[in-house]
Design a protein that fits this description.
The structure holds 2 protein chains of 2 kinds. Chain A is of the alpha+beta class. Chain A contains 24 helices and 29 strands. In chain A, α13 runs antiparallel to α14. Classes of the chains: A alpha+beta, B mainly alpha.
């Protein structure tokens, strides 16, 4: 009996270990291997007590000289390197020590390599889409371009070595928590992964276009209504470059683009890809010393990106013989993207020009191995995408590349035609695109800034600038395609080579302004220029924030740093200010005699249009406006193809309301009635009254409770996000909280003798959810507070919590 | 408590502690097997003894880490695991340590009995 009993016990033990050593899938969730995950020696408990930084000395053969890193009380590293290339190595090491899993996920997401480590049909589909849209292709091309500049490619390689040396010394118990949860391990970092994150940023910022929806909508609404609701340059704009700026050059604007090729199609164009969510805009401005209380120029920037934990930004100071710069980096991309040095400050907002176009191609035959261009047969290039899948067979996906770009979807029902995607971020750059930031880190004056910006490709940004010696400037920068008027608004005919972009606007002709008479420069994703700019452009622009910002910047003579703080946190909604008075004036008084309705209407009449966290008026207005918008454009929402249509900018509703009897207000669902704006406003009010968010006592919720602002974990893990944050703001306010996006970094730099910077971002420096530096800045950020950036000239000035010494040699 | 038990506990804790620095989580079972074998106790007694020892060992190790980190992470993981309080995670950790140690000790004692008979 005994051996059997012992053997049974042993089998039981093996089974127990096996069970706990493998992930368990239950419905759609997969639990990590629970034995390892809960072990106090290898599992998550180790991450609970992991030090934020491991002090000590580190040696690497990749280093030339010594580097000292001091981490201050905000967990910001101050890097003091003796060699520029070493500074990049150490930057890579540091950012990996704080954000390794995040970098990995961003790169995998961009390259279409998520299913490889996480599996699942949803991620397979997502990976396929990324590959078919050419994201990996674009990243590979970027690396190809970067290699042409061997010196700076060496910096990227140094950065990669830093990341990889960090990965190499990691023991499995020290792996970032999410690796333990998801059951995979980090692989070596490569320049391709850095390029993938650059493409990730490009996808977020410059892949937004409506070519397919615009073609559909134009056919659907007819030319006259379409042109009214979707103009290139509406009235009343306040563009980035002050109107009246002399351009000093002209452009050949002859010829028009071929119109939409919709009429040749049997059905609507169906979008094959997911567009980045709206709301990824930003504000930046610089005020000249003549208009500040201190007499020093002040530069401000708050990029509005998707708000995530770990945060998209990593704050750091890097000093080496060539520069001493402070600011924020994106994990995985070397260099400081927004920041300052002793002499200048810089920042960016997104430009919004349309640099992604669709071309309808005609296949030469049903084999689709060639297409027709100017009557000639042009062979396609075939790229076979290998998509590895966790616990499943690798998928091989064939993507055909035309001269225009990849053909993401091959529609079996339309065997003769396909849509090719032409995107600027697919092209091979002339040099390391991030060189612009390295040169800004070194810049001392306007001339350096002007030179630094040359050669930057995409995503195009409004680069704001201020210098200690008193200059302020703003450049709409990036390669901007030369287009014929109207080109790129709709799907174009890809069988005619003349429909290609006509090259790029020369750098010196990019829209720019330096020391304008008004004493400030600013941008908030609005149109770059007024219509007098000699080149044609179209795109996706913002219509409210820029006007609010420019109005505020002309509202007083001199500004203080505190004024700038108030502006970045300003919840004033110009959309509300322009629409609500009309809406209230059209409201039927007899139908709303109920005392509660009367009280709400009175409150709205007295409301200051601020989306403050405590304002129930904001909650009601927002619901009412949205209902009114949907009813106004019921033609589009009511269509069976509503998801394939383009929706007008909210800017136009207040203009339409002035024309009470406009046919757009007539509801399609009531054939026998002819509604006016008055009917729509009242109907929307009644709907809003029923549906607005209320507390259990029936009171309308204050805005922060209704808007449910949150900063979400990158993988959306419950418990790892911060939810229900008490903050105001709305997409059209300067404090642009919308759709999970918002001010991802607020920076105000005053360029005095020593630069003074107030900064904050909604998260923390450390990506470990067990660290107190994971989300420690969210509360200050939400309440509009700032923290002082410790910009130093010497290492001795840093009150260091942790110190690390890096030197040449082998461990 | 007799010497055999004390000896077994000592072997379990020292081996368990050392092995877990270098080996996977289930090395706790190896410590249990060794301790169960060496302590020469009855199988059922060893099962109970090393179960308790495993509970205390893993429970205490997790508790120390939890209190040192002010439960920041265990609170998050608790939410992730279906809104469980940190205490439930501590309990689950201790239980897994107990079962792993206990099964190991039981096997060790049974092997010992078989080999020594």
């Amino acid at each position: 009996m005994k051996p059997v009993k012992a053997a049974l016990a042993f089998i039981l033990l093996i089974l127990w270990i096996y069970l706990l050593d493998h992930p368990i899938s239950f419905k759609s969730t997969t639990l990590p291997a629970i034995g390892n995950f809960l072990s106090p020696f290898t599992g998550f408990w180790q991450n609970a007590v992991a030090p934020d930084v491991r002090s000590g000395t580190f040696q690497s053969g990749a280093l030339k000289d010594k580097t000292q890193v001091l981490w201050d009380d905000r967990l910001v590293p101050h890097v003091f390197a003796e060699d520029e290339r070493d500074a990049f190595y150490v930057s890579g090491y540091l950012v990996a020590s704080q954000r390794l899993w995040q970098m990995d996920m961003l790169a995998r997401s961009a390259m279409g390599r998520l299913a490889e480590v996480l599996g699942g049909e949803r991620l397979i589909a997502r990976d396929k889409e990324q590959r078919r849209m050419g994201m990996l292709f674009g990243a590979e091309n970027a690396v190809r371009g970067w290699k042409q500049d061997s010196v700076h490619f060496g910096y990227i390689e140094a950065y990669c070595s830093g990341v990889n040396d960090y990965i190499r010394q990691l023991k499995s118990r020290d792996l970032p928590l999410e690796y333990k949860l998801m059951g995979f391990t980090p692989e070596p970092w490569t320049p391709l992964k850095t390029a993938a994150i650059v493409k990730y940023m490009a996808q977020s910022l410059c892949s937004r276009e409506y070519d397919l929806e615009a073609a559909n909508t134009k056919a659907f609404l007819g030319d006259s209504l379409y042109n009214l609701l979707y103009p290139d340059f509406p009235e009343g704009l306040s563009p980035v470059i002050p109107p009246g700026t002399e351009w000093g050059f002209s452009a050949d604007t002859s010829g028009n683009a071929t119109e939409s090729v919709l009429d040749q199609l049997e059905s609507l164009y169906l979008r094959p890809n997911t567009l980045p969510p709206p709301g990824q805009g930003s504000n930046n401005w610089a005020v000249s010393g003549s208009r500040t209380q201190s007499g020093y120029p002040i530069l401000c920037n708050d990029p509005h990106l998707r708000l995530t934990l770990p945060s998209i930004w990593f704050e750091n100071q890097i000093k080496c013989p060539e520069f001493n710069a402070y600011g924020v980096s994106v994990p995985g991309i070397p260099g400081i993207l927004i920041g300052f040095n002793e002499n200048i400050a810089w920042g960016e907002t997104n430009v919004g020009h349309d640099v992604a176009d669709w071309y309808r191609i005609k296949w030469a035959d049903e084999n689709r191995d060639a297409y027709i261009l100017d009557g000639e047969r042009i062979p396609v290039t075939v790229k076979i995408e290998e998509i590895r899948v966790k616990n499943a067979k690798t998928i091989y996906d064939t993507v055909r590349y035309t001269g225009w770009g990849p053909v993401p979807v091959e529609d079996a029902s339309s065997p003769r035609y396909g849509l090719a995607y032409h995107w600027i971020a697919h092209e091979i750059p002339q040099s390391f695109e991030m060189l612009v930031f390295l040169n800004l880190m070194k810049a001392k004056n306007y001339e350096d800034y002007y030179r630094a910006l040359n050669g930057y490709k995409s995503p195009a940004q409004n680069f704001v600038f201020a210098s200690k010696d008193g200059d302020i400037a703003l450049t709409v920068n990036g390669q901007l395609p030369i287009k014929k008027p109207g080109q790129g608004k709709y799907v174009q005919d890809g069988s005619v080579s003349a429909n290609a972009w006509q090259g790029y606007i020369p750098y010196e002709n990019n829209p720019r302004t330096k020391n304008p008479a008004r004493g400030f420069v600013s941008s908030a994703n609005q149109h770059s220029t007024d219509p007098s700019y000699p080149y044609y452009y179209n795109g996706d622009f913002e219509y409210f924030r820029g006007r609010t910002l420019n109005r505020l910047l002309t509202s007083k003579d001199r500004f203080s740093g505190e004024d700038m703080e108030a502006m970045q946190n300003d919840n004033y909604s110009l959309k509300a200010a322009e629409n609500l008075p009309f809406m209230l004036s059209l409201l039927d008084s007899t139908g709303n005699a109920d005392p509660e309705r009367q009280m709400t209407i009175r409150a709205l009449r007295n409301w200051n249009f601020h989306f403050g966290p405590d304002a129930p008026e904001a909650t009601f207005f927002n619901t009412w406006y949205r209902k009114m918008y949907r009813l106004t454009f019921d033609e589009l929402y009511g269509s069976k193809d509503s998801s394939q249509l383009q929706y007008p900018k909210m800017y136009f509703t207040s203009m339409l309301l002035k024309d009470e009897d406009h046919s757009i207000f007539d509801l399609k669902s009531t054939a026998d009635l002819s509604e006016t704006a008055r009917d729509i406003v009242n109907l929307a009010f009644n709907q809003a009254w029923q549906e607005v968010d209320r507390d259990p006592d029936g009171k309308i919720l204050p805005w922060s409770q209704a808007s449910k602002s949150k900063v979400q974990h990158l993988a959306n893990l419950p418990g790892f996000s911060r939810e229900n944050i008490k903050i105001g703001g709305i997409g059209d306010a300067l404090n642009a909280m919308a759709n999970g996006s918002g001010p991802s970094w607020r920076m105000i730099v005053e360029l005095g003798e020593k630069p003074r910077a107030r900064v904050i971002f909604p998260g923390g420096q450390n990506g470990n959810p067990g660290s107190r530096y994971y989300d420690n800045m969210i509360d200050d950020w939400a309440s509009g507070k700032y923290q002082e950036a410790h910009f130093v000239k010497q290492a001795e000035e840093v009150k260091a919590l942790y110190t690390q010494h890096f030197s040449a040699g082998h461990e | 408590m007799n010497n055999k038990i004390l000896y077994g506990l000592l072997v379990f804790l020292v081996l368990g502690y050392l092995m877990q620095f270098f080996l996977p989580w289930y090395s706790l079972a190896f410590a249990g097997i060794a301790a169960g074998y060496m302590s020469k106790g009855k199988p059922a007694q060893s099962l109970a003894l090393f179960f308790l020892a495993g509970v205390i060992f893993w429970g205490l190790a997790a508790y120390l880490k939890d209190s040192a980190s002010s439960s920041i992470l265990s609170a998050r993981i608790g939410i992730l695991f279906g809104d469980q309080p940190p205490g439930a995670l501590l309990g689950l950790t201790a239980l897994i340590g107990g079962i792993t140690g206990g099964l190991g000790g039981w096997c060790g004692a049974l092997f010992g009995k078989y080999i020594r008979q």
